[in-house]
């Protein structure tokens, strides 16, 4: 797919991600960096996609109608911004996102949001595999501490770093928010 305007994909920035039950996280400035990018994209009239996870599990904070499923107010979509609802980590599975991007000639995507090792990693892998020029913003994504497969506790920073390492090169380019603000491919500079 050829380069064209760049679409910002904001993944799962919902109120439930701020609940203490979500766990210990990294990148405390991620929301600020996401807002900086979102503001720049809006000022440049670049396309923005907001992805919302809608759980199939009734006791989940992301169950439809629960406060946790709502977008965080400061990162909520504007009326003219596209919203995708998903039920699995990957924003491309059964959502029409790929078609929406193709119809608009959008060959580049910049992915931000949560969580790095789940929705960000799976969405970025699909984007890369589908031929999109894919960028993940390291300081505009975050994740949570968890145990690895061997039962060893890993910090959120360790989980985040390994997830980014899984993506780097083969599926996506990893950049900082400052670097993302300088990406080429738009009709207007940021």
UniProtKB/TrEMBL annotation:
Residues 8-149 form the Isochorismatase-like domain. PANTHER family: ISOCHORISMATASE HYDROLASE, PEROXYUREIDOACRYLATE/UREIDOACRYLATE AMIDOHYDROLASE-RELATED. It holds the Pfam family Isochorismatase. GO terms for molecular function: hydrolase activity. The keyword Hydrolase applies. Keywords: Hydrolase. InterPro entries: Isochorismatase-like_dom, Isochorismatase-like_hydrls, Isochorismatase-like_sf. This is Cysteine hydrolase. It comes from Natronospirillum operosum. The keyword Hydrolase applies.
